[in-house]
Amino acid sequence: MLLMSTLSALWLATFAWCVKGEEENVKSIGLRTHSLAQPYLDSDMQSRWYDFGGDTIIRTDQYIRLTSDRPSQMGWLFSRVPLTATNWEIEVEFKIHGKNTLYGDGLAMWLTKERGKLGPVFGSADRFEGLGIFIDTYKNNRPGVVFPYVMAMVGDGKTSYDKDTDGKNVEFAGCSARGLRGATIPTKLRLTYFQDKYLKLELQYKSVGEWTLCFETNQPPAIPQVAYLGFSAETGELSDNHDIISIEARNLYTAQPTSRPTPGSGRGKKATKEGSSWGWFFTKIMIFFLVIGGIYVGFTAWRASNRRSHRF
Ligand SMILES: [Ca+2]
């Protein structure tokens, strides 16, 4: 009886570790080509990896402002090189704020074939090909929906975004995020893409470190082979400041526990290898003690029952 329960505990412990191990096997490496942080610009007042245009202005110690809190502004920021990683995660700190009680229109994040073209979709070109994530702060016409509304649209190069209905007919997935605009904490989004596995969007706007799931799908859209990472924003009659504070892009990959580190692999990778081998070590120790414990308990029980049968 005791031996049985020990064995089942051992099995459970091993199983729990396996499940945990599978999640931990997803590793990441920073993508310098698609990350951006203060002071944003180098000595030539250029960014090596990002390009910007329209009404975008940069304050090297604070933000990249895609639109200022003035009517009829449009600005963009786009990576110079396409995102070539198969699986990736992009974390963006942004800030949407202004002095008015009525405000708009919103901010977009792009993974598209096109780059740096001004247009009517949050300051960027319509009939795009690829993925657009829209943080829509002005409700044009979507009854019953709380704004700001965050939604994804998968563009095929032909379909138009209809501003008058806030893109309802082309929505891939989305969520309401009341309090995202003008939040007192740093607001962030984190978009994670694993080819053929999932696409996930999380938001931070309630409290620091609290990520709210906006949507997650295990049927992710295909991203164009050549896709640039970009951001844009637009104001109309109503306005707001739409700021990008920082961009952290990471390449995701599944680590093979048995594979050797490849020559020239980064420090981060090495550190995680060491981390996982420590995990292995402790698991082995745990299993060892559980087995010894099981044998001891089993043996004691067997000896006790043997003694009893001897006595009578
Ligand atoms: Ca809108």
Automatic annotation (TrEMBL):
GO terms for cellular component: COPII-coated ER to Golgi transport vesicle; endoplasmic reticulum membrane; endoplasmic reticulum-Golgi intermediate compartment; Golgi membrane. The chain crosses the membrane at residues 278-302. It is a single-pass type I membrane protein. One of its GO terms (biological process) is endoplasmic reticulum to Golgi vesicle-mediated transport. It is found in: Membrane. Residues 1-21 form the signal peptide. This is L-type lectin-like domain-containing protein. It comes from Chaetomium thermophilum (strain DSM 1495 / CBS 144.50 / IMI 039719). The lineage of its organism: Eukaryota, Fungi, Dikarya, Ascomycota, Pezizomycotina.
